């Protein structure tokens, strides 16, 4: 039984070391948000940009523009108050792969506006 537990631990360590789950979560989120006509080609293009960014030392390419960010904010602001809660904000950042589940974000007690959401994302 120990061998099975050891293999699971090795697999988990590998996934964590290479941030595979975060990458897959990000790719899935972007894919579902943008819904490209040719999803496989779109994913290949994202991965190719990631490879180039890593090889050249350039920052990871982000694939959302301001209109996408505004649309995401509007989906979360279902009551159309012009703000979202800190919990919604943190979940959006996690979904986009911009923070991890264990990362501590400070809640200043204020609702998140579209402008703040855009600047953070």
What does this structure look like?
Helix content is 64%, strand content 3%. The protein has 121 residues and is mainly alpha-helical. Strands 1-2 form a two-stranded antiparallel sheet. The radius of gyration is 17 Å and the shape is globular.
Rg over C-alpha atoms, rounded to the nearest angstrom: 17 Å
The main β sheet shows up as: 2 strands, antiparallel
**Proportion of strand residues:** under 5%
Name the helix and strand elements from N-terminus to C-terminus, one letter apiece. Answer: HHHHEHEH
N-C termini distance = 45 Å
The pLDDT mean sits at 81
Briefly summarize what is shown.
This protein is mainly alpha-helical and 121 residues long. It has helices at 2-17, 20-34, 39-56, 66-76, 86-95, 114-120, and strands at residues 83-84, 112-113. Helices cover 64% and strands 3% of the residues.
How is the secondary structure organized here?
Elements (H helix, E strand, L loop, with lengths): L1 H16 L2 H15 L4 H18 L9 H11 L6 E2 L1 H10 L16 E2 H7 L1
């Amino acid at each position: 039984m120990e061998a099975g537990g050891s293999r699971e631990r090795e697999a988990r360590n590998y996934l964590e070391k290479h941030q595979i789950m975060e990458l897959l979560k990000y790719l899935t989120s972007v894919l579902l948000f943008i819904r490209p006509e040719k999803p496989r080609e779109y994913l290949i293009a994202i991965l190719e940009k990631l490879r180039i960014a890593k090889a050249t030392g350039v920052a990871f390419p982000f694939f959302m523009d301001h209109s996408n960010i505004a649309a995401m904010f509007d989906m979360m602001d279902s009551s159309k108050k012009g703000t979202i809660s800190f919990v919604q904000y943190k979940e959006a950042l996690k979904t986009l792969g911009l923070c991890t589940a264990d990362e501590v974000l400070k809640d200043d007690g204020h609702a998140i506006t579209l402008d703040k959401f855009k600047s953070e994302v």
